[in-house]
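Page 42, continued from yesterday. The earlier attempt failed because a stray header line got pasted into the input along with the sequence. Redoing it now with the clean sequence only.
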Amino acid sequence: HAHLNMPASFAWARGLEARPVAVRFAPPTGSRWRVATQLVGTADPLTWAAPDLAYFMDSPTELSAFTLRDWTVAGPGGRTDTIRIALHHEGTDAELDAFADATRKVVAEQVGIFGETARFDHQVYTFLADYLPWASGDGMEHRNSTVVSASGSLAQDAEALLRTVSHEFFHGWNMERIRSAEIEPFDFTGANPSHTLWFGEGFTRYYDRLTIRRAGLLSDSAYAAMVADIVNAVVLAPGRRFFSPMEMSLQAPFVDAATSIDPSNQPNTFLSYYTWGAGIGLGLDLALRGGFEGKSLDGYMRAMWERFGRPARRYALRRPYTVTDLERTLGAYSGDTAFARDFFARYVRGRDAPDYAALLARAGMLLGPVRPRAAFAGALTLDADSAGATVSSATIAGTPLYAAGVERGDRIVSAGGAPVRSEADWQTLLAARAPGDEMPLVFQQRGREVRATLRLAVDPVLEVVPMELAGQRLSEAQRTFRAGWLGSRAER
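This time it went through. Structure tokens are written below.
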């Protein structure tokens, strides 16, 4: 097995970017390895080509005795695209067949949003999948393929693996062809910062779960739990006080695979543009559906595809977009430029969170606290040893622990007069208290003993529950709204 990431495998020279590239792979003798890639095939099954450096660098390649599954997707004007899964794993053919069937359903849902595939350059799209115990986990989109790798297996982790597959395939439209002007053309010698990852990554994150639900592979309650994860992350994140989604997007070089040797306080200053963008997508989708007849985020994404994404010829981009383009397209699509201007001012350039409770209520989903009677001090991770329990993660601004002055690296001595030697001790102490209780807290911080009062609060973590599971009756309007939101878009 060999998996080649082209920028890490080949040298290149400045000034030759426009030259076509050809490469011949030489598998070990007797290995039965084949080639899976988005590179352009030739008469020789081991020789592949690219029209220029950019396409070559964007074309990861798998050489192994992989197993292949494929199917076709019909589109407008008689166009047909082939979708392939080239999988290297230790599982069974039956597991692959089931996974391919689930992937096919998700692909159909995403095609239904845009009305066509992403018009793959050679009418073929390939999932290059390595699910092996020694593999590193990742997913990376490319123009006509994606790399998805994990140490998990289809037998144990198919649901999580499908989420990555769904995410990366959606990128075929949103990122690869609906593309920000800030990253096009891509500069291989620079960081390529962009203000729009909340849209490119975040809206894709919103749709990766949604299209799995629409494919019938999740129940309403399971999907509601995923929505709750997004809502909690956005509503409770202290980082929203400091940066907008556009500003968070600029931090990508520091948080997405980059390495810093210096301590940071990112849990209190950063909210992922994936998650915040998904929260913006959720809010915009429900706001459009509730406020504009016949409108939805699906329609907005199709408008972006038609204006900026759909290529006129092979390897081309229609027109890279700016943040202003995103806002103007929303105004034109909704027919309300004031709505678009306000939405972008508050939720994209600003730091507000949508009113998720009101928006979800239209779909018959209830947003409320998970444990309204539970005492809450804040998330606390403790490393225990013979000397006691040390705080190993940042305390979060706005929580009782943060207000009491506890920091990462502190050693908790006692709480409420009882010694704290482990996380189990800590949880036992909390379970015996109620919101509003106060208890003395003793901890060691940078060589000194600190005595503080810990004032416990109500647990702020929220859940999203379908009304019918809470014993309430859905109205016909709510039932219709939910069906429009979560129902299938695929042409069966």
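Notes: DSSP finds 17 helices and 21 strands in the chain.
Reminder to self: strip header lines before submitting.
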